[in-house]
Amino acid sequence: MPDLPSRIETIETFQVPPRWILVRVTTADGAVGWGEAIVAKRARAVVGAVADLADNVVGRDARRIEDLWQRMHRGGFFRGGPILGTAAAAVEQALWDRKARAAGLAVHEFLGGAVRERVRAYAWVGGDDPDGVVEHARQRLEQGFSAVKMNATATADHLDRHAVVDDALARVGSLRDAFGADLDIALDFHGRVPRPVTKILLRELEPFRLLWVEEPITPETDDALRHVASVGSSVPVATGERLTSRWDVLPLLRDGVVDVLQPDVSITGLFELEKIARMAEVYDVAVAPHCPNGPVSLAASLQVGFCCPNVAIQEQSGGIHYHQGYDGLPTGELFDYLRDPAPLTTTGGYFHRGDAAGLGIDVDDDAVRASAGAWSLPDPDWTHHDGRYAEW
């Protein structure tokens, strides 16, 4: 192993409220980098995966990020999937943070440099069973956002055509009636709407001129996107948050069934997200990085947004309903573990580019260690009216 100041010495994982999994990489010279894993409902598996992957990289040169990414992804016979993907992504983000800090540069300077001064953001309204979205959207407009996203439906079954369609149209219509064209609206299907109902919804939603409909089909049935696309609706289709790599994304681009790609930096890793965005650009596909996550994940995602011209908008989790209601955990916000909230604060609905080194944020080690502790988030346990387990 190299006798170098940049030799990786420790990789620590911290579970902190409300549902963040933060990863800290330290090298022999005392330098530190931070990353963030997700898949919080399988937190113990993620923490274990980080520990397993650490065996592939501890003792090695932290500057060789691509080599270490390859080792984490290819070092075992069984590979791939979201658990290993998010563990590797967190370590890789921390390596970029550490490397860029050592050079006194922002990460985006290593990826071609900035192409923009600000990245548009959107905010969530409603919850898993959306209600009261008009008032929530009004609050978001007052905060400066001009784009929102909400869940399309609660549980939906193959023959729930009238109720599901009517409810979704009424909800979107209420926003259009209240705010007209001043508000851009995205609708998240979460893969929970069966194909026959999705096809009807895509046609019926056309007059509302949505930003996109998201995850109309779950990843394991992505082949069905061709049937959804055959409807001929003008509503853009977005997907990709559960995909781990360029190899997962390529079939969607090649088949022309995605209009807005939504990879998550805490599933793909930072450099892989940048590679996916460049590949999507070849197909004239926009990228809207998925990120209902914590502060490190958002900071890493923004570094890619600042340097990739086809990144159209950035998700963020401020005030999201996912922060609440789990085992009595505190509400928590993006800034709880930062020394300075400014880099992740939106102004007029935009994140503004800074030149701070690394990921552009300073994680408060003391706050992380003081709040760290194991927690678990329950599965939603949704069922249909006849008792069958329902898609979340």
From TrEMBL:
Presence of keyword Cytoplasm: no
Entry coiled-coil feature ranges: none
Residue ranges annotated for the Mandelate racemase/muconate lactonizing enzyme C-terminal domain, each copy included: 130-232
Record keywords, A-Z: Lyase
Pfam families linked to this entry: MR_MLE_C, MR_MLE_N
InterPro entries per record: DgoD-like, Enolase-like_C_sf, Enolase-like_N, Enolase_C-like, Mandelate_racemase_C, Mandelate_racemase_N_dom
GO MF assignments: lyase activity
Stated name of the protein: Galactonate dehydratase
Species for this entry: Haloactinopolyspora alba
